[in-house]
Amino acid sequence: MGATNGPASRKLPSHAPVAQRAALVHCCIPSDLGAGQKVQNRILAAAARRGYSPESLFAIRLALEEALINAIKHGNRLDPRKKVTIDARIQPRQVRITIEDQGPGFDRGCVPDPTSNDNLCKDHGRGILLIESYMNKVQWSRGGRRLTMIRKNP
């Protein structure tokens, strides 16, 4: 008898309930905040259909909004010729979202700490802190142009 991959890696039949199937979202959008909002809504709707708790939906919404704003505004600098690519895999137990912009990138280690006394009163600079606080795993790659974040659904 041959080896099997086990139940976790088996593909569910297309007639399986939506809550048990993975949803895949792939979009390449212009550097436009409205386009980012539409993608965010698609991902959140897919997570809601898969039974994510209100706390997890809030965390995903907040982190995704901050990540998209950062990619569009700071990465691509609102340049309409530059694109943002979003890939999301929404499964019942976790969502994995990758966002990549076409900007110059950044060094995560050089981003000022928004909780330091010098930065507490500033009205900006908290997006990365929020992303890293609300997601279970966050990884920056490709010189800061790509963000991969994971949120587990308890």
Description of the structure:
- The model is unreliable at 1-10 (pLDDT under 50).
- It is built from 3 helices and 5 strands, in the order βααββαββ.
- The chain starts with 22 loop residues before the first strand and ends with a strand.
- It is globular and about 50 Å long.
- Strands 1-2-3-5-4 form a 5-stranded antiparallel sheet, with helices on one face.
- Strand 4 (137-141) and strand 5 (146-152) form a beta hairpin.
- The protein is an alpha+beta fold and 154 residues long.
- It has one domain (22-152): Heat Shock Protein 90.
Q: What is the number of helical segments per DSSP (H or I, 4+ residues)?
A: 3
Which second-level CATH architecture applies?
A: 2-Layer Sandwich
Question: For the record, what is the CATH homologous superfamily label?
Answer: Histidine kinase-like ATPase, C-terminal domain
- CA gyration radius, whole angstroms: 17 Å
Q: Indicate the proportion of strand residues.
A: 15-25%
What's the pLDDT, averaged over the residues? 86
Distance between the termini: 35 Å
Order of helices and strands: EHHEEHEE
**What is the overall shape?**
globular
In the predicted model, the low-confidence regions spanning at least 5 consecutive residues are 1-10
Structure classification = alpha+beta
How many structural domains in the coordinates? 1
- Strand order in space, largest sheet: 1-2-3-5-4
